[in-house]
Every structure is written in structure tokens, then in C-alpha cells.
Write a structure and sequence with these properties.
single chain, 102 residues, alpha+beta, two-stranded parallel ribbon, 37% helix
Length: 102
Amino acid sequence: MTTNETFFFRDKIPFDHVRDTIMPALIAARAREKRIRIWCTAAATGQEPYSLAMLLKGMGQALAGFRIDILATDISLPVLERPRPASTASSRCNAACRSRNW
């Protein structure tokens, strides 16, 4: 079963946990190689990985010099076959996305 439910910054608590707990631990663990690879599963049409990228950009200097790779995947053929432009329409950016200062 797949829901294809996706929107920017869906579920505040996991994103806060990534920013406040997971990323500091990864930054410390990868300080020597300066590379972090993230696999975003069940990414549907991409709002979650885009949200993750925006969250990481908001971390600024903490990630200076790091190479960050985000791999986004999904098993739903309808969402994978949907054409996706390089930038997402602002009309799809919900209030959580618009409230950020990028």
C-alpha cells in the first residue's frame, strides 16, 4: 500500500530531531571526511527531500565544507513517472515552507 502523501516539512517533530540530534551527531562523526549521505525513502513527488535540503541549508556554517548527498526514492510508479521540473512550484509550498527564511 502507498499513500503518495507528501508536503513540505510534513511532521515537525522528525525534522526538529534531524536538525537538533541526528545532524550534530553526523557532523561530529564525519568531521574528517566531510561527507554526509542521506537516503530519503518513500519520497513521493519530492517535498520531503526538498524540505530536508532546505533544513540543511538553514544549518549554515555547521555544514561548511561538507559534501551532502540526498538520495530520494519511492516505490510508487505513478509518482516516479510524473514529470518533475528542477524547481517546485511555489503554489505547492505550504505554510511551513513559506515561513522559513531562505
